[in-house]
Design brief:
single chain; Rossmann fold; 5 strands
């Protein structure tokens, strides 16, 4: 029998449930693992919220390079890649107690650019807490998708 998370992912992929898929839960409940498995299957891009803001900043400063070609990556081309790729995973949303204007704008833009398209967002925080950290505009866009709370013990501690 397929588990609930597997059904929800399948339903997002086949269009029965709306994107983004927002995975919320305590650490170790499988949010990142599920998102990475989906990336392994579909391909796409993975960012933590902080890592995305850092990459965008480097690109704006002209200091981001493609590791394969060693060519400079502009902010415009990075945003273009985020917009056109198969799937984007934005993990660790709300991992910091404060969010800079730059980090907010980066997260908001990814969520907005990926509207109705495959995007998985992972957070240890509820949408209410995220609304206090970011704002209602962002959490409204997240809530318009499929929100799934993962529960259970920290799987890392069960080993």
């Amino acid at each position: 029998m397929e588990n609930h998370l597997g059904r929800v992912i399948r339903d997002c992929v086949d269009g029965s449930l709306p994107w983004p898929l927002v995975l919320i839960g305590k650490p170790g409940t499988g949010k990142t693992c599920a998102a990475l498995c989906l990336l392994d299957h579909a391909g796409g891009l993975y960012f933590t919220a902080a890592g995305l803001a850092g990459k965008i900043l480097l690109a704006y400063k002209g200091e981001l390079y493609n590791p394969d070609s060693k060519l400079r990556v502009s902010a415009a081309s990075l945003w273009e890649e985020i917009a056109r790729t198969t799937l984007v995973v934005l993990d660790e949303l709300g991992a910091r107690q404060r969010v800079s204007d730059h980090a907010y704008e980066c997260v908001y833009r990814v969520v907005d650019e990926r509207s109705g398209r495959p995007l998985v967002v992972g957070s240890n925080l509820s949408l209410d807490v995220l609304a206090g950290l970011y704002d209602d505009r962002l959490t409204s866009r997240l809530a318009a998708g499929t929100v799934l709370e993962l529960t259970g013990p920290d799987r890392r501690l069960l080993r």
